[in-house]
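Q: Here's a chain of 239 amino acids. Please give me its 3D structure as tokens.
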Amino acid sequence: MKESREISSLSRRHLIGGGLAGAGLALSSAALAQTASGSADTARPASPGEALRLLKEGNARYVANTPINTDHSVDRAKRAARQKPFAAVVACSDSRVAPEIIFDQGLGDIFVVRVAGNFINEDGLASLEFGAAALGVQVIVVLGHTACGAVDATIQSIEDRTLPPGHLPSLVEAIRPAVYDVIPEKPADLLSAAIEQNARLNADKASRSGPVLSELKEAGKLVSVPAVYDIATGKVDFL
């Protein structure tokens, strides 16, 4: 299929030609082609817009408690051979945030990158590049959530002018730009405003990251959007 050939070609050019082979992480073109064409027997979204629509419709079903993806044993054998995600979600590690359930999608439909505070670092970008170039992901959702502890800890660190112990300062450093952006606006709810801005900044970071993600976006094959999940209601608001 034309789309699979284009994805496979992009995968070879950027993932192999870009230096992964030299790093000992080479992916054969045949393996990439097989992975990218793994959806041959399953209908895929025709466009990034349709992919985003599927996520929104799935979340509406979740909110209404009318999910259709409840039997996770279906297609287990096919999933063992390949994966076919149409969307990637950058989610917080919060145990209450489960993208497949929130968007009512089956196993293998969503490529998930998780870290406390749902920010994107170099490892996250590499994961998203693989998801988009090799697996055919068409939409990236950077999903913040209400009452995010990582964002709240960053606010407290800024206000107290202290850093948390251990490796936690790395989280604070990654989330701090979003807090600094909204502080001058003096929002009534600083935490909520920072959570939204953090999602926006990282969705924009994904869309601008070159050459892989930015080229796919320019070609109309990928979109990156920010959103916030309300833990109490189950609803995802796209920003």
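Q: Can you summarize the key feature?
A: Strands lie at 87-91, 110-114, 139-145, 223-229, 236-238.
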